[in-house]
Write a structure and sequence with these properties.
Elements lengths: L1 E5 L6 E6 L6 H7 L4 E7 L3 H11 L4 E7 L8 H13 L7 E6 L1 H13 L5 E6 L2 H7 L4 E6 L2 E8 L4 E5 L8 H16 L3 H9 L1 H5 L3 H21 L14 H10 L7 H18 L5 H13 L12 H9 L9 E7 L2 E7 L2 H9 L4
Parallel strand pairs: 2-9, 3-4, 3-5, 5-6, 6-9
Antiparallel strand pairs: 1-2, 7-8, 10-11
Bound molecules: nicotinamide-adenine-dinucleotide and glycine.
């Protein structure tokens, strides 16, 4: 098992990464404090792992609440279902809520924990690759509003993150590769170890080898933890984690969140950011090509289907909540990692985006 600290001043915690950690009774019981534990999961993940987890929580009274699978259920009604359960069963602030699932469950249950009695004990047990390398770490929690994704939420740190690499064995292939898309982001942010693991371990990664995954997840979480430790509430540096996301969110919005998985949209978004960075003289075309090959090798999309209207694409980008002026605020790539730049050249942006139209 590997461990990493997230050294926040008020809420420091440890990220535990290893094989079969859902079987580690001592580890799990040490974070699940209080007499009552509520495990929130969904109807896909719960049948696979919830009984095993239940058994390991020994002397606690363990409750279970199952939400229906899917982003559409990161909703106000699911949120109130969790709160109703906590209130109805007299949970206290120092009882524990465990989020067992992908990013949807982590964000939803995390926000319920953040707001129940102004904050109860939370443990994140992420089971998708995306949740293991991104959403479970750093304390962003949220639900969606009919008018926008992640519109209601809070920064709320868990007491611990426990990542069991064996859970990835049951993850559908497309979801797994989408998680690799998010990992490639950390390579671009300057984690050289990640680039070399990804380029040199294709077969092991496709076979979901636990040891290789453990290393990859460790380096990804280490990068995320470094950034969050410096800028917990996204006043500056944390925005770098949005590399590829402004372009990616535009793609997800234009396709109604029903065509691309998040990591797939981010993969195309990173390629757009790389191309723009080449045009601006920040990196050489060799770097863009290297990442193009890497992204394509993991069967992630490298062009956009269905085709789109570039003006609509730019209009969605302009609404991005990171824009602070009329310029497009973008994360670009340079030789030592990433930087945030204001882009005002619409003609350049248009030609970059258009070149991905299939
Ligand atoms: P998800 O939670 O919907 O999981 C993807 C699919 O995989 C679901 O069908 C899920 O049931 C299934 N699944 C998860 N683990 C499994 C396992 N071990 N075996 C079999 N099936 C499994 O989606 P996601 O990609 O994990 O997360 C996306 C969500 O995360 C979005 O809502 C996004 O907004 C959020 N997010 C949050 C942050 C953050 O910092 N909080 C960062 C990135 C993304
Ligand atoms: N996923 C981006 C962040 O946590 O800030």
């Amino acid at each position: 098992m590997r461990q990493l600290q997230l050294p926040l001043k008020d809420n420091p915690y440890t990220i535990h990464i290893g094989e079969n950690l859902l079987n580690d009774e001592t580890l799990l019981s040490s974070f699940c404090i209080g007499g009552n534990v509520l495990i929130v999961s969904n109807n896909v993940v719960a049948p696979l792992y919830i009984d095993k987890l239940n058994e390991k929580l020994g002397d606690k009274t363990v409750h279970q609440l199952i939400i229906r699978d899917g982003e559409v259920n990161k909703s106000q009604s699911s949120y109130f279902k969790i709160l109703d359960y906590l209130i109805g069963n007299n949970f206290r602030r120092n009882d524990t809520l465990v989020a067992l699932g992908g990013g949807v469950i982590g964000d939803l249950a995390g926000f319920a924990a953040a707001s129940y009695q102004r904050g109860m004990n939370l443990v994140q047990l992420p089971t998708s690759l995306l949740a293991q390398v991104d959403s479970s770490v750093g304390g962003k929690t949220a639900i969606n509003h009919p008018q926008g994704k992640n519109m209601i939420g809070a920064f709320y740190q868990p007491k611990a993150v426990v990542i069991d690499t064996l859970t990835l064995k049951s993850l559908p292939e497309r979801e797994y590769l989408s998680g690799i898309g998010e990992i490639i982001k950390y390579a671009l942010l300057g984690e050289k170890d990640i680039l070399s693991i990804l380029e040199n371990n294709f077969e092991s990664l496709m076979a979901r080898d636990s040891k290789v995954l453990e290393a990859l997840i460790y380096f990804s979480c280490r990068k995320k933890a470094q950034v969050v430790a410096n800028d917990e509430k996204e006043q500056g540096e944390r925005a770098l984690l949005n590399l590829g996301h402004t372009f990616g969110h535009a793609l997800e919005t234009l396709t109604n969140y029903s065509y691309y998985l998040h990591g797939e949209a981010v993969a195309i978004g990173m390629l757009m950011a790389l191309k723009l960075s080449v045009h601006k003289g920040l990196i050489s075309a060799d770097i863009e090509n290297r990442y193009f090959q890497l992204i394509a090798s993991f069967n992630l999309p490298v062009s956009v289907i269905p085709s789109f209207d570039t003006n609509e694409f730019l209009a969605v980008m302009a609404k991005d909540k990171k824009n602070q002026s009329k310029a497009y605020r973008l994360v670009l790539v340079n030789d030592s990692g990433c930087i945030i730049q204001e882009e005002t050249d619409e003609a350049l942006l248009t030609s970059v985006i258009e070149s991905f139209n299939a």
